[in-house]
Amino acid sequence: MELNRRTVIAGAAAAGLAATTLGTGSAQAAASGRKPVREPFGTLTDGTKVHRWSLENGGTRLKVLSYGGIVQSLQTPDRHGRHADIVAGFDDIADYEAKSPYFGALIGRYGNRIGKGRFTLDGTSHQLSVNDGVNHLHGGAKGFDKHVWDVEPFTEGSDVGLHLHYTSVDGEMGYPGTLRTKVTYTLTRHGDWRITYEATTDRATIVNLTSHVYWNLAGEGSGTIEDHELTIAASRYTPTDSGLIPTGELAGVAGTPFDFRRGKPIGRDLRAGHEQQVQAKGYDHNWVLDKGITARPEHIATLRDPRSGRTLRIATDQPGLQFYSGNFLDGTLTGTGGRTYRQGDALCLETQHFPDSPNHPHFPSTVLRPGQPYRTTTIHTFGA
Ligand code: BGC
């Protein structure tokens, strides 16, 4: 603990933090957050201005765009106190608008796929926007990742953060009901990044919000994540068909490459040739978390990079985790640091409800009704 505190202070000092912030020399002073700062980031093709907010607390530095609530940069110290940006992103708003595979974005109204974009609710069938072959992916052609959110900064006790608001009108992308959404990004004095998703609807609908950060704990653009060690507290996962739609089966991970219960390097079984991996070009599946839905966030996954020593621990109240091993990164995108992203250069760990739940009555329900608030929380804890 003592070592950790010192590295945080060293990192803050190296970054040239104001002397007043470090004045007392205490860990507490170094960890107190600074008011979020806003700057212009660019202009969308329709002329809308996009801003970038920068915030910092407890050694973690976060940059968030008003477009898509995108985490454009997230820096944490390594075991020597050296900061690096550990999320994939772009420098330029035009790249986000034209070709982003959801880098860092908020995903809504429904994370992951809905088969053929169809579902039935209370006897009425709904057709959603179809944007992934014949299926609906991450909210459709213009999901929450492609809208400009209203952003409101806050400081509360020792926390700093942003409230992001977006209202999705009745019928948007085919979804019933007007959905009022509020997402809160908080940086705590320990440098944890907490996301709280809240929503209300005026008609019965479905909702499954998540965050699509691509992690590389060695630093974005530094190469493969295959040596990162991953632990997932899940004994089952949801196998998919060739369109990556769950078949409905909850399959055991024991004896398969999908077993991350004891932790292992991601690359260890990545080429095992399991038909589910061949189909998805790697890992791109929903793990059924053993804890199920919980009233409070519980620890469900740990990612560790042995080279930098950085760790990421994830806690959530949600029932599922989509682990995507960056299979579709193909060397055509150039990231923030000027290097191209190739297959497996970053990975996603998306806390969520199971994909295609509206078409599988035995999956936990994603239905939201008027008067029934939606509220879920995921916490990212960084270490080194
Ligand atoms: C999905 C992948 C998809 C990626 C977006 C992930 O959440 O599981 O199949 O390709 O998002 O680019």
From TrEMBL:
Keywords: Carbohydrate metabolism, Isomerase, Signal. This is Aldose 1-epimerase. One of its GO terms (cellular component) is cytoplasm. Pfam families: Aldose_epim. Belongs to the aldose epimerase family. SUPFAM superfamilies: Galactose mutarotase-like. Beta-D-galactose binds at residues 112-113, 212-214, 284. Its EC number is 5.1.3.3. It catalyses: alpha-D-glucose = beta-D-glucose. Residues 1-29 form the signal peptide. GO terms for molecular function: aldose 1-epimerase activity; carbohydrate binding. It comes from Streptomyces dangxiongensis. PROSITE patterns: TAT.
